[in-house]
Amino acid sequence: MGKKKAKAGAFVLDCSIAVAWFFQDEADPYADAIASRFPNAEAVVPSIWPLEVANALLMGERRKRSTPADTVQWLSSLNSLPITIEDQPANRAWSDVLNLARAHNLSAYDASYLELALRCALPLATLDDKLKVASAAVGVPAYKP
To answer: Which three-class secondary structure state does DSSP give residue 48?
Structure first.
C-alpha cells in the first residue's frame, strides 16, 4: 500500500468491507464480490484506514474472534493488494470532513471516506448503512464490482 495516483476504475474502500473479508461471521456477498476484483481493481483509502483496520483486528483478538497469528497472516495478504492510502491534511479534516460529518450525522472517520470519494470523484464501497445514505445524498455512487 502506498501513495500514488488512482487509476481509472478505482474506488474508495471503507474499512467495513475489509473487516468482512477477515471475520467469517461478517462475511457478505458484496464484500466477497469486491475481493474477487483484486488484483485488477484498485482501491483508495483515507489515511485513517490502516488504523481502523488494525483496531478492528485488535478488538477481534481481544474478543477471541481471531488470534494474533490470524492477524499477521491476513495483513500480509491485505498488504499485497493495490490499495492507495491518500493523505488528508488536518485542514481538510477540520473543514470538509467535519462539515460532511455534521451534515450527514456521520463520525469524522466515516466522513473521511465520503470526502475522499467526493474529492477524487470515485465510487464508494461500504457496508455501513449511514455511509450509504450519506453517499447517495451527495451523489457519490456505490461501487459496483
So the answer is: coil
The CATH superfamily assigned to 11-138 is: 5'-nuclease (3.40.50.1010)
Locate the domains of the chain by residue range: 11-138
Cell numbers 462475511 label which residue?
27
Predicted model pTM: 0.89
Angle at 125 between CA 29 and CA 1, to 5 degrees: 105
Query: Residue ranges of the alpha helices (H) in the chain?
Result: 15-22, 29-35, 49-62, 68-79, 90-92, 98-104, 108-120, 129-138
Q: Is 30:127 a contact under the CB 8 Å cutoff?
A: yes
**What is the pLDDT of the chain when averaged over all its residues?**
91
pLDDT score of 6: 53
SS3 category, 127: coil
pLDDT of residue 108: 93
Residue 64 CB-half CA count within 13 A: 0
